[in-house]
Amino acid sequence: MNTNEIKYLIGKYNSQTATPEEKKLVEEWYERINGADLNQNQFEDSKVKKQILNQVSSRIANKATTKTKQIKLNYTLFFKAAVILIALIAGSYIYFSKSDRSGVLTPSTKTNKKTIVPGGNNAVLLLADGSQIILNKTSDGQLANQSGVEVIKTKSGELLYRFTGNSNAKAGAINTVSTPRGGQYHLILVDGTEVWLNANSSVKFPTAFVGNERKVEITGEVYFEVAKNKTKPFIVHTDQSDIKVLGTHFNVNTYADEAYERTTLLEGSVEIKHGDKKALLKPGQQASFNGKVDGINVSEIEDLEAVIAWKNGYFQFEKSDLPAVMRQISRWYDADVIYNGKIPAKQYTGKIPRNVNVAKLIEMLAYSGIHCKVEYNQITVNPK
User: Fold this and answer.
1) How far apart are CA 157 and CA 155, in angstroms?
2) Could you tell me which residue, 124 or 169, shows the higher pLDDT?
3) Most exposed residue of 185, 242, 274, 309, measured as fewest CB within 10 angstroms of its CB?
4) pLDDT band for position 218 (cuts 50, 70, 90)
């Protein structure tokens, strides 16, 4: 496997969307390299990373045979695999540091690992007739048939809409998929458009696109890979904007607790309409605006992967202030965040797998100077 394939598969594993076959591929790749295929020159900090690699190799060589120990080993294996993958791609070990690089602080936090866990594939499907299906608790297979369109939960956990061949498919059957805090989901609409929902998000859509446009409504954060159709544009409606595309890849962050709505284009082109203002985005650009400021600000984005890191199983912060960091953590771990004392005016940069337990998360935050205490479903951020 090449680097991109490895990145894709480990991203799916970390976001709990990998099939058993994909998980096996990653495990076989990791055990195969066993440290031998990684050139020391590929690491920016070879001493540190070589130590990590030796630790992982030792774990693999001493695999436990009991079921309990095997589960624990697999968690460590993939956590370390993610670390090495980041080293290969970004040339750096997983870090979480101050933007001024002014030293490392020793963790000094207490955690309760049993009360807060990372999110997973959790979502609810609301059908046109008002019935609800909890997707993470239902079996694979057909879930519904709505006017010639069947709804299927695939073996890999995706939600798939597909024509049955019945010509009676018509507009009006509106469905909604929503994720709670601590949830995410992937679905494929009847036209082939793929939709990824981040935590605390929703997408509302017709089961069949009839007429001269394909229109959906969203809340929260959603990533789209829109199927091309020159005769039928795809419209994404939010509380603040309409986004018009023909076929493209883009991310929309429209959380109500964020200061700005942001649309980031990865491929193709999109037209943003906010009030009476419009903007046309090119790949690598981001449009941002809010209801308090007139106009749309368009800027260039250096690292597009950081924007969609959530989809690939990571938190990634780029010169983010503390509240922005903690909002992401709050949504994914379904934990309330409170601040004990003044919020420090600092910026943070880092990348952390979203599947780490809360103890590991708090440890990583502590190295950056963010000291937290976890009690029940609450994370308290303390001064030094």
Assistant:
1) 5
2) 124
3) 242
4) very high
d(Cα 250, Cα 263) in Å, to the nearest integer?
7
Other CB atoms within a 10 A radius of the CB of residue 380 amount to 15
Instruction: Give yes or no for a contact between 350 and 357, defined as CB atoms under 8 angstroms apart.
Output: no
Alpha-carbon gap, residue 57 to 35, rounded angstroms? 7
What is d(CA 7, CA 372) in angstroms, rounded to the nearest whole number? 30
pLDDT in tens, 150-180: 999 999 999 999 988 765 555 668 999 999 9
Q: How far apart are CA 194 and CA 189, in angstroms?
A: 6
* Token pair listed for 231: 């005769």
Among 141-155, 182-196, 222-236, 339-353, the minimum mean pLDDT is found in 339-353
Say whether pLDDT at 51 is over 70. no
Burial class (CB in 10 A: 0-12, 13-18, 19+), 212: exposed
H or E element in which residue 98 lies: strand 96-98
Distance of CA 318 to the CA centre of its chain: 15
Distance of CA 35 to the CA centre of its chain: 29
User: Which class for 66: exposed (0-12), middle (13-18), buried (19 or more C-beta within 10 A)?
Assistant: exposed
Whole-number pLDDT of residue 367: 82
Neighbours of 34 (CB within 10 A): 13
For residue 166, the model assigns a pLDDT of: 63
Give the mean pLDDT of 100-126: 61
Report the alpha-carbon distance of residue 340 to residue 314 in Å, rounded. Answer: 27
**Half-sphere exposure at residue 266, Cβ-oriented, CA atoms within 13 angstroms:** 16
Element (H, E) at 7: helix 3-14
**The token pair that represents 181 in the structure block:** 């805090």
Q: What confidence tens digit (pLDDT) does each residue in 262-271 have?
A: 999 999 999 9
The whole-angstrom separation of Cα 365 and Cα 107 is: 8
The one-letter amino acid code at 180 reads P
Locate 100 and state its tokens.
Answer: 């001024």
Q: How far apart are CA 143 and CA 211, in angstroms?
A: 26
pLDDT in tens, 52-94: 444 444 444 444 333 334 434 344 445 544 444 443 333 333 3
